[in-house]
């Protein structure tokens, strides 16, 4: 707090901001695991009411009375009071998905495409397998970028030892454009459910 002609003074600050936007995909940057936002999609008013603001103002005393005498329906379960699962809405998930980097989106779409084409619910791969598949899909990516997405964004861990696994490679001679191939290595496995929940 800094008044004119007086020394600056630090005070405790606690606030909740209400951000409104017509942009459903990128109103703000929200990363996965973020618990500070409660994102709600509010439907349009069905009809215009020219007295809407006055009606809201008239409701203030009743609303304050309600807030002072209500019984809370939730217990304090986190630093933001609510359990994070209660705040995780479809609107929030849409923003988190839109904040992913381009390579992560391309990798996710590629692996989901393989799962649909090969009728499987999971895909195993080593980093080099994925780099080659991305090049096959005309997406330029370096191994360290792929590793960052797999390990940091998707939180996948490789098999503890070099084991035999089945992965897929591009083949335009087949109707599904992919063919299974067996390899040996410390592979990662990702499921359809994991990718669809990102």
List keywords for this structure.
198 residues, two-stranded antiparallel sheet, 4 strands, alpha+beta, elongated
Describe this protein's structure.
- The protein is an alpha+beta fold.
- Helices cover 37% and strands 12% of the residues.
- It contains 7 helices and 4 strands, in the order H-H-H-H-E-H-H-E-E-E-H.
- The chain has a two-stranded antiparallel ribbon with strand order 1-4. Strands 2-3 form a two-stranded antiparallel sheet.
- Strand 2 and strand 3 form a beta hairpin.
- The longest helix has 18 residues.
- The model has no long low-confidence stretch (mean pLDDT 88).
List the helices and strands and how they pair.
Elements: H1 52-69, H2 84-87, H3 90-98, H4 102-118, E1 122-125, H5 127-136, H6 143-153, E2 163-170, E3 178-185, E4 188-191, H7 192-196
Antiparallel strand pairs: 1-4, 2-3
- Catalogue the unreliable spans: none
Number of helices: 7
Helix and strand succession?
HHHHEHHEEEH
The rounded distance between the terminal residues' Cα atoms is 42 Å
Order of strands in the sheet with most strands? 1-4
Instruction: Report the sheet with the most strands, covering strand number, pairing sense and barrel closure.
Output: 2 strands, antiparallel
Q: Beta-sheet strand percentage?
A: 5-15%
Number of strands: 4
Structural class: alpha+beta
The residue-averaged pLDDT reads 88
